[in-house]
Design brief:
Layout (H helix, E strand, L loop, with lengths): L2 E4 L9 E6 L6 E2 L4 E6 L4 E5 L4 E6 L6 E2 L4 E5 L4 H23 L3 E6 L9 E6 L6 E2 L4 E6 L4 E5 L4 E6 L6 E2 L4 E7 L10 H12 L15 H10 L17 H11 L4 H16 L19 H16 L2 E9 L1 H8 L14 H15 L5 E4 L2 E4 L5 E3 L1 E3 L2 E3 L2 E2 L7 H16 L13 E5 L18 E5 L3 E7 L2 E15 L5 H14 L11
Parallel strand pairs: 20-24, 24-25
Antiparallel strand pairs: 1-8, 2-4, 2-7, 3-6, 4-5, 6-8, 9-16, 10-12, 10-15, 11-14, 12-13, 14-16, 17-27, 18-19, 20-23, 21-22, 25-27, 26-27
């Protein structure tokens, strides 16, 4: 018989967006395991399962909005072994209750809960000392594994009688942390306070940044560490599980920025904040009817990255036109020799091949800046800007130099579909050589694409048009593709950019287009 997991009481919050589903059908879960992640305007929280068992069916999807009582998933009946465990726990709880009634005070052992962790589980901080008075949900210790950190809270209120672990000690699930002296029946914190507590933490950490960007579920200890150093966590890239920011990430960020010019830091950090917070001398509603909506999550996350790239990189954009007459004729007449069916190849596949040829001749275009050093990449991973209902995404196509036109065309369609369905892995947005932003399917000619840092160049493609071109003493109708090449002037100068564009003309021109198919 199936059992249902419902959204618990989360206080006054209604219609909260689901940003992550942490379980899948067929998975065995335990009571307390996180099943979904919810995000309000200012905070996010993982919702635990109230039951144990095997997931039979998931009733929600990413982007859905839920409230208290919304159906999340259905579970099959839990195994007999698990039932025995639950029965044992119930008996233990009954014994503790009887003991409390017979004594005015008792020592309660706090243990490390059963949590999934990667590698060794280490005590990185002990947040209380013997004799301290603790309240319900007050953090006792901080644990870290290879990928993440978590604060272990106290489920009871009382006085710390004895601490049984040491800092930097390796521990395991169900191990005793400490003994707490309590004088009355244990009272559990209401579930509805969880969301409120997370939001309070988020508000308390608002000193870190003037915007409401996601801080990737960092622990209170890490947020406090960042606040003490004056670091905005919205500017730190997390290396932990699901992008969680760890203490080492804060230290790395500080080390990378110690030698940066103060004026540059003011441009990157202060200027965008001043612009965003500067009040208008009027209200928009004074001039007519308005509709206020939240900025979509993807745009909210990418916005600070775009501002930083635009203000910190000296952009120069080179505009040119490529003669793709023969390339288009070749592309539209590709036929399978066996079935005689027309082979559909996207023009982007040809452009990717041409970019690889250019980057091999001009390696500065396949590099990144690391303080006073240049990193030259030996791989060729091209980013493709994909327009989705959720906002612009830029996934990477890996090792394009080793793939033919058909493989590239299929992969472009595949990653575009995954982006629109929000099923693409976050890792696929990093580690690129160069980016293509194509408006050819919509219209327009020249524009200024913003460099996708830490890359140093991006090429924008407009809609190809037939034009009269003067060639060898006469005008000919030629199909011309407008391109806009934005590059980082710290690494690439104008002459090199012009040569790169000329190389693209050769790669996509009359004598070379067919060789790209090889």
């Amino acid at each position: 018989m199936a059992k249902d997991i419902l959204v618990p009481n989360i206080g006054d919050f209604k219609n909260v967006e689901i940003i992550e589903i942490l379980i899948k059908e067929g998975q065995e879960i335990k009571k307390g395991d996180a099943v979904i992640t919810l995000e309000s305007d200012k905070s996010s929280v993982e919702v635990p399962s109230s039951l144990s068992g095997k997931v039979e069916k998931i009733h929600i999807k990413i982007g859905d909005k839920v409230s208290e009582g919304s159906l999340v998933a259905s579970l099959e009946e839990s195994s007999s072994e698990e039932s025995k465990v639950q029965e044992t726990l119930s008996k233990s709880a009954t014994t503790n209750t009887n003991s409390e009634e017979s004594e005015s005070k008792e020592l309660k052992s706090l243990i490390i809960p059963s949590i999934d962790f990667s590698g060794k589980l280490i005590v990185t901080d002990i947040l209380v000392k013997e004799g301290d008075t603790v309240s319900i949900e007050q953090p006792i210790i901080t644990l870290e594994d290879d990928n993440s950190s978590i604060d272990i809270p106290s489920p009871v209120a009382g006085i710390i009688y004895k601490i049984l672990v040491k800092k930097k000690e390796e521990v395991s699930a169900q191990q005793e942390i400490c003994k707490v002296e309590i004088g009355k029946k244990i009272s559990e914190q209401p579930i509805k306070q969880v969301f409120s507590k997370v939001e309070e933490n988020q508000n308390a950490s608002s000193l870190l940044s003037s915007n409401n960007s996601d801080i990737s579920g960092s622990s209170p200890k890490v947020m406090k560490f960042a606040r003490e150093l004056g670091v905005s966590m919205n500017e730190v890239e997390g290396s932990g599980r699901r992008g969680r920011i760890l203490e080492d990430d804060i230290k790395k960020y500080v080390n990378q920025n110690l030698n940066k010019n103060k004026a540059t830091i003011q441009i990157q950090n202060s200027e965008p904040k001043t612009t965003a917070s500067e009040p208008l001398p009027y209200e928009h509603s004074e001039f007519g009817e308005i509709d206020i909506q939240n900025i979509p999550r993807i745009k909210r996350l990418s916005g600070p990255h775009l501002v930083k790239a635009w203000t910190s990189i000296p952009h120069v954009t080179q505009h040119d036109e490529l003669d793709v007459t023969e390339m288009e004729s070749f592309r539209k007449n590709l036929v399978d020799l066996n079935t005689r069916e027309i082979i559909s190849i996207t023009p982007l596949a040809f452009m990717i091949k041409a970019l690889v040829n250019g980057m091999k001749k001009f390696p500065n275009f396949n590099s990144s800046i690391d303080n006073d050093k240049i990193i030259f990449k030996k791989y060729f991973h091209i980013g493709i800007a994909v327009d989705t209902p959720h906002g612009l995404m830029v996934p990477k196509i890996r090792n394009v130099d080793k793939k033919n036109l058909s493989e590239l065309s299929l992969e472009i369609r595949k990653i575009s579909k995954l982006c629109k369905e929000l099923k693409i892995d976050k890792k696929e947005f990093f580690g690129g050589s160069m980016t293509i932003s194509s408006l050819g399917g919509i219209g327009g000619s020249f524009f200024t694409p913003i460099i996708n840092a830490p890359e140093v160049a991006i090429i924008g493609i407009g809609k190809s048009e037939m034009k009269q071109i003067f060639i060898e003493g006469k005008f000919e109708a030629r199909l011309m593709m407008p391109i806009s090449l934005s590059y980082d002037h710290r690494i690439i100068d104008g002459a090199e950019a012009a040569k790169f564009c000329q190389d693209l003309k050769i790669s996509l021109g009359r004598n070379f287009a067919m060789k790209l198919a090889v």
